[in-house]
């Protein structure tokens, strides 16, 4: 064996050792994949918590106008979007960080503040990216068991914080379970945390609870608090990949050192800026989604498969044969999200679709439940 061959084998062995246990985020099954697998002409995707109504007309028009500038690099600092978000949230532009989806924001924060030997605390059934980003950073995962209602157990999370803890992650509303914490609970938790700990409050679904809780950005106080939000859900821009965080300027200045240049593309920037200017359209769609969510929760309750109230744009189905129901629904061209990866093998997460898509879901679910009962 040559010296080159030995070096190659050594490199591969190191790479395998460094990535041992790492696994990629698995998104909801694409429509095209199901159509190929089942030979179906049409399918309804209710797996990824997208806004079924799509982006606002203003956002679409802004992207169309941007086509002629696609040969130019985007504004690396997202200046116009930062200014608009700073004005919206009554903060300075230096307190806003824009990312390639809130996913990148979360990963940047964890990678920046937690490394080998440090601990990151999160709820066992919190957003799975917290665990993936922690492991990728070489930090120690502290997954705290959730409550009986599948929500964050803030008392247990507080008890899990040690001298090694550098980051705490809280999703509110929580994905994938849809539970909600109120701001009084959160502030009590924050008050007891050391000032140096970074607390990430992941509010990807905040627009769906604006009528039942006060704005955390104007209410909650802690020097290490970082609130992250996204344009992927209520704003219908999941394909653009644009999210953001609001925090202390000195904290975000450190994170910016880790951020890749030009991380948010031209189309994402102009679409997000236009969507912010189309608030009436966005909130109209949020209201429709919430109406349909209530309809699905009521139907699930009547069918005996309800898993409780959700505060996001999805609902949970609970059944001992959830895997069989998943297969039956996919046979009918309906794509829900299995939650076995979260340790919830008896649950399916189902995004709230349009009225017509939800009609198809409920019809398909009726058939599926009869099939699994045989």
Short recap of the structure:
With 374 residues, the chain is of the alpha/beta class. It contains 14 helices and 12 strands.
Description:
The radius of gyration is 22 Å and the shape is globular. The protein is built from 14 helices and twelve strands. With 374 residues, it is of the alpha/beta class. The protein has two domains: 25-53 and 280-373, Aspartate Aminotransferase, domain 1 (Alpha-Beta Complex), CATH 3.90.1150.10; 57-277, Aspartate Aminotransferase, domain 2 (3-Layer(aba) Sandwich). Helix 8 links the parallel strand 5 and strand 6 (198-202).
Strand order of the largest sheet: 2-8-7-6-5-3-4
Strand content: 5-15%
Structural class: alpha/beta
Total helices: the number is: 14
Task: Characterize the biggest β-sheet.
Answer: 7 strands, mixed
CATH topology of the largest domain: Aspartate Aminotransferase, domain 2
CATH class assignment of the largest domain: Alpha Beta
CATH superfamily of the largest domain: Type I PLP-dependent aspartate aminotransferase-like (Major domain)
Order of helix and strand elements from N to C terminus? HHEHHEHEHEHEHEHEEHHHEHEEEH
Question: What is the number of strand segments?
Answer: 12
Residue share in helices?
40-55%
Taking the alpha carbons of the first and last residues, their distance comes to 61 Å
